[in-house]
Amino acid sequence: MAFLKQVKKGRFLKATLDLASPFESGEWTLDTGVQCKLPMRGVLEITPPTLSGHEKDIVLSSGVHGDETSPIELIQRLAEGILKGEIIPAHRLLLIIAHPEAINAHTRFVTENMNRLFKARNDERNVDCVTANALQQAVSDFYHGSTQAQPDRWHLDLHCAIRDSKHYTFAVSPYTDNPTRSNRLFAFLQRAQIDAILLSNSASPTFSWYSAEYFSAQALTMELGKVAQFGKNDLTRLEDFYSAMLALVTEVDVPLEWYGETMSVYKVTRTLTKQTDAFHFTFPANQANFTHFEEGTLLGGDEGVEYTAAQGGEAVVFPNPNVAVGQRACLLVKKTRVNFREQVTVE
């Protein structure tokens, strides 16, 4: 079946992954009045039947890492519901299945970690760089297509972790000087019953950071469970998140409700960067995210340096000693409290 025809029947994921089928761009209107546009493979732009003048511009992305399949299934579920007329969005949407080559290969990436390639346009030295460039352009075009004088931009980049975690679901708020930690964003996370949020303290060229830094989007990297193959994800554990995401795209606004202690909040205390090939951890390679280490515990080292847990202890997130030299090997974090204001701040 031709690419465009598959998408129109609701098979957004199947069409995206069918690399033998030539890509076809297209624009069409559903019986519900929803307008659809395919600017590139894996990218579906949705415009609601009527524009209220208060709509958000929401990017929902998945598949930046090809082996993280549960978020891809959630995006397919949402796209299918819209394409079949069962869901009518109230906001402009950009639905993304980001890296079909890596998804088909059942790998995190092909040559380079694509979620480190969103700082600026890349030299097109491999498929990961080519894809990252195309996604940056697609997001830029989408945000610039806003009908609002002061756009309300959001970006949820959906992932799942390669290891166990003390928190089954958590979000990472990228660091930027822009006002991208609104109380509406935190209220959404609470409604989605996300277990924890991690507040980054330095820039990192991830997909969500790109939208936060260049477009002031309310942006998050969402970690939704653990990596599994297609068909083996327990999506019932993500139903609260999906329901909240569905409400985000179909309701005019997020209720500003905040119960404080229902979600753990962490701040980054340090980022450990791999300086040489001698970098190592003292704990197992499969150590769970958010494992806490008491003050003074030896965590690892590099050539000429040892790392120990700081005063009051620290927890480790995203530990990976096998990254390339110069890349982040882990984050060290501590729990904190926040002030629930128009822009959420650490106490």
Automatic annotation (TrEMBL):
Pfam families assigned: AstE_AspA_cat, AstE_AspA_hybrid
Q: What reaction does this enzyme carry out catalytically?
A: N-succinyl-L-glutamate + H2O = L-glutamate + succinate
- Residue ranges of the AstE/AspA barrel-sandwich hybrid domain? 262-335
InterPro entries of this UniProt entry? Answer: AspA/AstE_fam, AstE_AspA_cat, Aste_AspA_hybrid_dom, SuccinylGlu_desuccinylase
Give me the residues that bind Zn(2+), please: H65, E68, H159
* Cofactor(s) listed in the protein's UniProt record: Zn(2+)
**UniProtKB keywords:** Arginine metabolism, Hydrolase, Metal-binding, Zinc
Superkingdom classification of source? Bacteria
EC number assigned by the record? 3.5.1.96
Which pathway is recorded for this entry? Answer: Amino-acid degradation; L-arginine degradation via AST pathway; L-glutamate and succinate from L-arginine: step 5/5
The UniProt entry annotates the active site at E223
**Cofactor binding note of this UniProt entry:** Binds 1 zinc ion per subunit.
Q: What does this protein do?
A: Transforms N(2)-succinylglutamate into succinate and glutamate.
Family the entry assigns: Belongs to the AspA/AstE family. Succinylglutamate desuccinylase subfamily.
* Protein name, per record: Succinylglutamate desuccinylase
Q: Which organism is it from?
A: Photobacterium atrarenae
Q: Which gene encodes it?
A: astE
